[in-house]
Amino acid sequence: MALILSIETSTPVCSVALTDSGNTLATEKLFLEKSHSNLLTLVIESVCKHAGVEMKSIDAVAVSEGPGSYTGLRIGVSTAKGVCYALEKPLIAVPTLEAMAYEVNTANPFGYLLCPMLDARRMEVYAALYSPNLSVLHKVKPVILDEQSYQETLADKKMLFFGDGSNKFKALVEANANAGFVEGVSPSAWAVGKIAAAKFSQNNFVDLAYFEPFYLKEYKAAKPKKLL
Question: What are 74-97's pLDDT values in tens digits?
Answer without folding.
Answer: 999 999 999 999 999 999 999 999
